[in-house]
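=== Structure Prediction Worksheet ===
Name of assembly: unnamed complex
Input type: mixed (protein and possibly other molecules)
Chain count: three
Listed entries:
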Amino acid sequence: MKIFESKLWRDKAGLAGLLLFLIAAVAPIVWCFGYAIAYSVGLAGFLRDGFTLRYWSKALSEGEIARSFVFSGAVAAAVIVIGATVALALVLGFRRELRRGFLSSLLYVPLALSSLVAAFLIARWLSGAGFFSRIACSLGLVSDPQHFPNLVNDPFGIGIVAAHLLLAIPFFALTMLQIYEIEKIGDLRRLATSLGASLTQTRWRVAVPILLAKSSTNLLLYFIFVLGSFEIPLIVGAQSPLMISLLTRRKFGIYELAQKPEAFVIAVFYTIVLLFLLTIIFRKREEALS
Amino acid sequence: MNRALHRIPFVFVALCCLFPILFLVLQSAAGRWDYPHVLPQSFNANSWRVIFSAAHLGQSLLLSLGISSAVGVCATAGGFLTSKYIASHRHRRTLLYLAYVPFVMSPVIFGVCILFLFIKLRIADHFLGVVVGQGIIAYGFAIIFFARFWNAQLRATEDLVYTLGGNSWDAFRRVLVPIARGTLLVCFCQTFLISWFDYALALILGGGKIPTLTIRLFGFITEANMQLAAVSGLFLILPPIALFWLNRKFLLKPV
Amino acid sequence: MFLEVRNLIKAFGREPVLHHLSLDLPEHETLSILGRSGCGKTTLLKLIAGLIDPDDGDIRLNDTSINHVAPQHRNIVYLYQESLLFSHLNVFENVAFGLRLRKVPSATIAEKTERMLEHLGLETHRKKRPEQLSGGQRQRVAFGRALIINPTLMLLDEPFSNLDAEIRTQMQELFKRVAQEFAITAIFVTHDLKESLIMGDRMAQMSGGKLRSFSSKEEFVNDPETGVGAELHFWESLKEQHSVTIL
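=== Predicted Assembly ===
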C-alpha cells in the first residue's frame, strides 16, 4: 500500500500559499495598523511615555485632520463624478469608433502616464505661465500670467482634480467599453427599442444605469486611490488644505517630534475609512454575484 | 462636409490622447520658451545629450528596471500560488478582502507605518526595502488579479491530471502554468507598472538613497529643469506604452 | 470482487450526500448508475477516484483498501461531462499526456499514441488544437487519453450529456466497442434511462445518497421505481392513441 502522498503534497502547496499570504499580505497590514495605533497613543516611537490620548484629542480638536479628510473626499468625489460622466459620454457617443481602429488603441496611451507625469503636465499646462495661458494670451484673453485663472496649487484642488482626470477618464472609458460588450448592452437596447423605447430612452433607461451599476465597484476603488494619492497633490496641490497622504508625510517628516504621533492618528483614521469603503465594495460584489 | 464635421470629435479625442506625449517631446527639445510664446522659440537636444552622456539617468533607468522586474516576477509568482489556495478556501471572501487592503492602501501611509519594521530588519534605505515594500502592494494586486482565473473548470482539469497519474508539481508545470501563460504575462506587466510608477514608497522606504526614475523625475521638477523632467517623463512612459500595446486585449476587465 | 465499496458516508458541512453506500463491481464489467442531478453520483465517483475523502467507509480494489492511496497512484481515471482537453496541447499530445507523465520513452509514446488515434478514428486530426474539434471528437480524444494508460477502472460522469442525439449514439457505440476490446472495468453514471440500459452490464439506481443494485437488467426494467415501466407505458399509450386516430 502506497503512502497517501497526494493530499499532503497538495496541502504543502496550499500551506506555502497560506504562509506567503500571512507573511506578505496579512502581517504587514496588521503591523501597520497595530504600530499606528500604538504610536498614536504613546506606546511606540520616539516619544513613547505610556498610554495617552493627548495626540488624539489634539488632532480632533485642531480640525486640520478633519479638513484634510473632507478635502480629500471632495477631490476624490469630483474626480469620480466628472470622470464617470465624461467616460459615459465618450462610450455612448463614440462606442463604435472606440472599439475598433486607431482610436481604440490611442485610448490606452494616457494609461501609460504615471501620476508624476500627469501632475507635471497639468502644472505645465494650467499654471499662470503655462501652455493654455499662452494660448489665452495669443487670443487676447489675458495679458500676463497673473490674469490667468489660478488653476494649479489652488485651494480648491482644481489642479489635483485635472491631473487625476487625465488618468481617470481613459481608464473609466475603457472599463465601460468592456462592460458594454460583456453585458450585451447593445442587444438590450435593441430589445428595449422593440418594446417601444426611443433612442434616448434606451440610453438613459438601459445603457447608463447598467454601465454605472457594473462599474460602481471600480469607481469606488478609484475613489479610494484618489483619496490616498500623493504625487499629484505634491506637485499641483496647495499648501493648505493638504490631502491625507501629504498631511501624513508632513507630520511624519517634520522635525517637531510631538507632531509625529499625529501622523499615525491620521493613519488609523484612514485605515478605518479604507476598511469601511472596502466592506461596501465587497457587499456590492456579493449582491452582483448573487 | 457632414462627414468632415462628424470626424471633428474623433480628431479631438485622438488629439487629447496624443497631446501628453507630444507635449513631453516638445518640452524635452525646447530651448528658449518665454512667455507668451505658444511654441518654443528655439529647439535643442541638450537635455537628450545630457541624458545619454551623464551616468545618473541611465543608472536610474536600469535601477528602476531591476526593481520593477523583481517586483513583477515575485508578485506574479506569489499571487498565482496564493490565489489558487484562496480560490478553494471556505473563507475565500474574507481572504480576498484582506488581499485588497495592501493594494488599495495609500503608499505613503503604508510606508510611514512599516518604516520602523524595515529599519529593524535593516532593509530601509536599501534597494531591498523598496522591492519588498512595492512587492507587498503588487502581491495584493496579483492575488486579486488571479482570483477569477481559478474557476471550477480549472479545478476539474487539475483533478484530471491527478487521475491520469500526475502529482501536484506535474499539474502545475505541465498544465496550469502553460494554460495561464498569457494571464501570467499580463499580471507581470501590471505588477511591473505598479512598481515602475511608484514614487512614495521609493521615497519613504528608500530614504531618497535609491534613485529610481520617479525620484529623478521629481528632482528635475522641483529644480524647475523642465527639459530634463520631460525627458525623464518620456523614459517613464515609453515602456508602459509598449506593454499596454502588447497586452491590450487582456486589460481592464471589470473588477 | 474487483471493486468493493462498503458503507460509504460523505457530508459537505451539514448536508449529507452519501448514506452508507455500498456497491460491488466485478472486473471487465460496466456498472451503470442511474440517478437524477444532485443525488450524489459525482460525489461517489470522486470518492472512488480519491479526489475527495470519505467521512467513513471503505473502498477496496482487488481486495486492497485504497482509502489512503493518492489519486495518481490508484490508476483510476475520471472522465467528466466536459472533455477537459488541455487547450495548450494538440490532439496527439493530449492523448500522449499520461504516457509523458510516466516518462515512457518517446518512441513508445509515438507508437502507442498513433495506434490509439487510429483506433478512435482521429489520425487525421493529430495536429489540431481542441478548439478545432467537434464535441464528439473532443470526447474521443478524452477517451484516448484515458485508455492509453490502461486504467484499472474508468469512471464516466455523464460524458455524453453535452452532445447532440446523433453524436451521443455514436459515442455510446464507441464506448461499448472500446470497453469490449480493452476489457475495461467502468462505472458509468447518467440521468438518462435509455443510456443507462445501453451502457451497463450491471445496473444500479441512486437516489438521496443511497444506491440500489440490481442483480440483472430484467430486475431493473421490472422495478417500478426505475421509471422503465412508466416510460414503456407512455409510448404504448401514444401508440394506442395513434392507432385510434388512424381508425
